[in-house]
């Protein structure tokens, strides 16, 4: 498919810019037959790249964030004659050991320290926070900088070492199951139940740009949701729409939601 037509499939300027970068990498792969990896993106952007680049003849794509449920991944673009298991997505895995037992560091603390090294967010994958430190999934090209320069997070000294993929400890998905009935499958109605707010307040938060649907800002409270959708709210966590369907005698729709805590 023509690159211009591929870009026209998406309307958001941010998406078009991400896709343009990916298409540039795809062109490089087509010319020199060497695999290329994108930056880290959210699931929606990765799916967009995989859909667009995957339609180009003779190329294949692989989405890899280090573990199956990763929220930030790179898309590897490579010639389709190469076995997927033999291509390298350019990931590095680091263990950050806190030197203090008395300070609890958060995801924000680690992210702030990493950005403070001058790294771009797009070079950083998931940050898996633990009681005694964190594990980082990062682009291989910045791993050396982190190992050398990350000596503290906030006021806490840390030690960084490289581990292999098998040493990664994926987070346990803790969520609260919510079974409710809703008048409709509008975004504001479903999100209100998921985050425990009134529909009126949720509609205001949607209109204010504080609510994301599938990792994209959504300003229309009436946008319909469906099973598989993820709703995110700043400072409130995320709500996954697991099941919809069936109506009560009063015509309300049954919903099964999973509410998660903060993002990785």
Account of the protein in words:
There is one protein chain. By secondary structure, the protein is an alpha+beta fold. Helix content is 28%, strand content 31%. It has helices spanning 3-8, 13-32, 43-53, 107-115, 140-149, 187-195, 199-207; strands at residues 36-37, 59-64, 74-79, 91-98, 124-130, 133-139, 152-153, 156-163, 175-182, 211-213, 216-217, 230-233, 237-247, 253-260. The strands form 3 sheets. A 6-stranded antiparallel β-sheet has the order 9-14-13-12-10-11. It has a 5-stranded antiparallel β-sheet with strand order 5-6-4-8-7. Strands 1-3-2 form a 3-stranded antiparallel β-sheet, with helices on one face. A hairpin with a 2-residue loop joins strand 10 and strand 11 (216-217). Helix 6 crosses helix 7 (199-207). The longest helix has 20 residues, at 13-32. The chain is globular and about 60 Å long.
**Could you name the ranges where pLDDT drops below 50 across 5 or more consecutive residues?**
none
Q: Biggest β-sheet, characterized?
A: 6 strands, antiparallel
Percent strand equals: 25-35%
In terms of quaternary structure, the protein is single chain
- Can you count the helices? 7
Mean pLDDT score: 90
Structural class: alpha+beta
Strand order of the largest sheet: 9-14-13-12-10-11
The arrangement of helices and strands along the chain is HHEHEEEHEEHEEEHHEEEEE
- Name the helicity range: 25-40%
Supply Rg.
21 Å
How many strands appear in the DSSP assignment?
14
Coarse morphology:
globular
How far apart lie the N and C ends? 35 Å
């Amino acid at each position: 498919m023509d690159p211009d037509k591929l870009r026209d499939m998406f309307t958001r300027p941010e998406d078009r810019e991400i896709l343009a970068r990916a298409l540039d990498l795809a062109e490089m792969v087509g010319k020199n037959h060497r695999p290329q990896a994108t930056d880290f993106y959210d699931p929606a952007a990765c799916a967009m790249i995989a859909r667009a680049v995957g339609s180009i003849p003779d190329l294949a794509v692989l989405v890899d964030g280090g573990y199956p449920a990763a929220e930030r991944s790179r898309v590897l673009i490579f010639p389709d004659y190469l076995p997927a298991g033999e291509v390298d997505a350019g990931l590095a895995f680091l263990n950050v050991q806190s030197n203090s037992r008395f300070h609890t560091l958060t995801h924000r603390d680690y992210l702030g320290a990493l950005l403070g090294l001058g790294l771009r967010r797009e070079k950083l994958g998931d940050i898996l926070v633990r009681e005694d430190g964190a594990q980082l999934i990062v682009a291989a090209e910045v791993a050396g900088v982190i190992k050398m320069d990350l000596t503290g997070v906030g006021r806490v000294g840390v030690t960084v070492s490289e581990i292999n993929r098998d040493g990664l400890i994926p987070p346990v998905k803790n969520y609260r199951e919510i079974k409710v009935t809703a008048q409709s499958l509008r975004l504001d109605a479903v999100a209100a139940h998921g985050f425990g707010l009134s529909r009126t307040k949720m509609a205001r938060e949607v209109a204010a740009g504080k609510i994301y649907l599938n990792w994209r800002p959504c300003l229309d409270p009436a946008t319909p949701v469906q099973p598989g959708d993820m709703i995110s709210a700043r400072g409130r966590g995320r709500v996954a729409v697991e099941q919809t369907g069936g109506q009560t005698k009063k015509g309300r729709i049954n919903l099964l939601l999973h509410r998660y805590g903060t993002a990785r």
